[in-house]
Amino acid sequence: MVLLQEEVRRLEAETLALLANTDSPEEIRNLKVKVLGKKGTLTALLRRMGSLPPAERPLMGQIVNEARNKLEQAWNERERMLEEQLLKERLEGERIDVTLPGLRFPKGHLHPLSQVIEEIEDIFLGMGFEIAEGPEIETDYYNFEALNLPKEHPAREMQDSFYISEEILLRTQTSPVQIRTMERQRPRLPVKIIAPGKVYRRDDDATHSPMFHQVEGLFVDRGIRMSDLLGVLLNFSRQMFGAEREIRLRPSFFPFTEPSAEVDVSCMLCGGTGCRVCKGTGWLEILGSGMVHPKVLAMGGYDPREVTGFAFGMGAERVAMLKYGIEDMRLMFDNDLRFLRQF
């Protein structure tokens, strides 16, 4: 028994010495398996107790268990110390110098088209107009019929539409908002709104897109004249394109206005003398306009014998292209940062 007891004490001392020199959790685990595992050295000594006399076995078992407990406590303590040391080293290695300047993230900004639409809205809000909205999925009645475009009207061919069913389509203009607003507001006067929003047509080239943005305007009241329309559009053009701008009206045709006029603004690049952009004319087309057709007023619930009104419509992309000198509309939908960062 004495010999076996000495071997246990020696194994305990040797193991504690090896444990004190371990530098990694893996070394601790390997040493634990070597000593306390099923085939470990302490386990082997425990099996040799069978050769001792029965009277000596309890005392020897107590000595072995004390050694095991002492070693396990030493292992736990060493593991804790190593974990703390490794954590301290990792935190030291990941130390952040809070005095260093931080990483600057690039700031985003409004898309040039959004900037132009907001500027248009601000200009007309300053002239007393209100902003009105309507559905992008529209009925044939509001998109065409109520705007003096009955079934089979040849002017419908001017707008190649996206039909969902025979009576439902993606709106080709924001003019339906004018009818909906008049219906909602009748008989109160004045009706003075702009209607910005997305519209859809079967177009896709450098100056057209299947989805684009329009801003329609409507002013209905007693005694509204063509000269009022001219004053509003001149004020808008000068605020949008520069105080020296002039406009001109050219006779045109729109089913929902009578008389109708195309509106040109003097070229902002050459000042009206003629250049490549304005094709030598000195003028750039910006929008269509006219006095609201009596049938449209009646459809909206107003008596054309008592009130008059004017309406206009412009493409926001067209305004942006003129304002910023953009030659291809598709650039505004490509999301190319090289293009967008210029604005």
UniProtKB/TrEMBL annotation:
Assign the protein's first listed, main location to one coarse class.
cytoplasm
Name its co-factor(s). Mg(2+)
Q: Which GO terms describe its molecular function?
A: ATP binding; catalytic activity, acting on a protein; magnesium ion binding; phenylalanine-tRNA ligase activity; transferase activity; tRNA binding
| One GO process term, biological-process aspect | phenylalanyl-tRNA aminoacylation
Cellular component, GO annotation = cytoplasm
Where is this gene product found? Answer: Cytoplasm
Enzyme Commission identifier(s) = 6.1.1.20
Q: What class of enzyme is it?
A: ligase
Question: Which CDD domains does this one have?
Answer: PheRS_alpha_core
Q: How is the cofactor bound?
A: Binds 2 magnesium ions per tetramer.
The UniProt entry, under InterPro entries, shows: aa-tRNA-synth_II, aa-tRNA-synth_II/BPL/LPL, Phe-tRNA-synth_IIc_asu, Phe-tRNA_ligase_II_N, Phe_tRNA_ligase_alpha1_bac, Phenylalanyl-tRNA_Synthase, tRNA-bd_arm
Q: Which reaction does it catalyse?
A: tRNA(Phe) + L-phenylalanine + ATP = L-phenylalanyl-tRNA(Phe) + AMP + diphosphate + H(+)
Question: Keywords of this protein's UniProt record, alphabetized?
Answer: Aminoacyl-tRNA synthetase, ATP-binding, Cytoplasm, Ligase, Magnesium, Metal-binding, Nucleotide-binding, Protein biosynthesis
In this chain the Aminoacyl-transfer RNA synthetases class-II family profile domain maps to: 114-322
Q: Which PANTHER family match?
A: PHENYLALANINE--TRNA LIGASE, MITOCHONDRIAL (PTHR11538:SF41), PHENYLALANYL-TRNA SYNTHETASE (PTHR11538)
* Record-linked HAMAP family: Phe_tRNA_synth_alpha1 (MF_00281)
What family does the Swiss-Prot or TrEMBL record give for this protein?
Answer: Belongs to the class-II aminoacyl-tRNA synthetase family. Phe-tRNA synthetase alpha subunit type 1 subfamily.
How does this polypeptide assemble, per the annotation? Tetramer of two alpha and two beta subunits.
What protein am I looking at? Answer: Phenylalanine--tRNA ligase alpha subunit
